[in-house]
Each structure stands twice: as structure tokens, then as C-alpha cells.
Amino acid sequence: MRPTLEGLREAGLTVVVAGNQPARRRRQLVDLGLPADVIATSDDLGVDKPAPGYFARVCALAGAPPERVLHVGDRVDNDVVPARHAGLRTAWLRRGPWGLLQRPPVDGPPDLMLVALSELADHLGVRA
User: Fold this and answer.
1) Cα dihedral sign, 13-89-79-48
2) Is the pTM of this model over 0.90?
């Protein structure tokens, strides 16, 4: 994960690490020294996925309109579908149990389908 995030930042992309997590998780993520421009939990944002407000706040943190933001998530129901409905581009990271249990959305596939986060750099033409 770290080389991918570093490559994205070195390419001039804004990296926001955000997810449905309690406030205490933010400190743990910050302490990991992740190469991200912003780290936020749903508790920081005041709203959880899949609510549209969550994605609006992530876009605000990224400083970009929804159509210029790629949301990477591992769940179709909590990430891909609601992010797309909020106007974001989507990447489905098919890993863990949700990658096996869930199927692509019936209203169309995500913009990208990944088996590993390291594939993201290749898809975006970035060296990781």
C-alpha cells in the first residue's frame, strides 16, 4: 500500500485516506506515517458511508469536484454504488470476504476493478 500511495502523491495527485472508523482510529492511521495528504474517519466527517454527505465531505477534503475524485473501496454496497451515485469515479478493490461475496453492481461496473491496491498505479499511469 505504501509504495502505491507514495507514487500517487509523487505524481501530484491528492491522496485522501478515509473510511468508516471511530475517532481513535484516525490517530492510529496518522501514527503509521501513511503517505497521504489527508486522513479522516467517518467520525471526523460527521457522517458514515454510504450516505451522500460522506462522499461530499471527502471531495471537499480532496479539493476537487466529484467527477475528478476516484473513490477506491472494497464493497459494492458501501463504496462503489453510493460513490457513483454521488458523482465520483469508482474503483472496486476486490479483496477480502466482500470481494468474494459481492458481485459487480447491476447498474454497471465500476470504472476500475482491482485485485490489489498496487494495480491502481498502473491503471492511472503512475510509477509506484
Assistant:
1) positive
2) yes
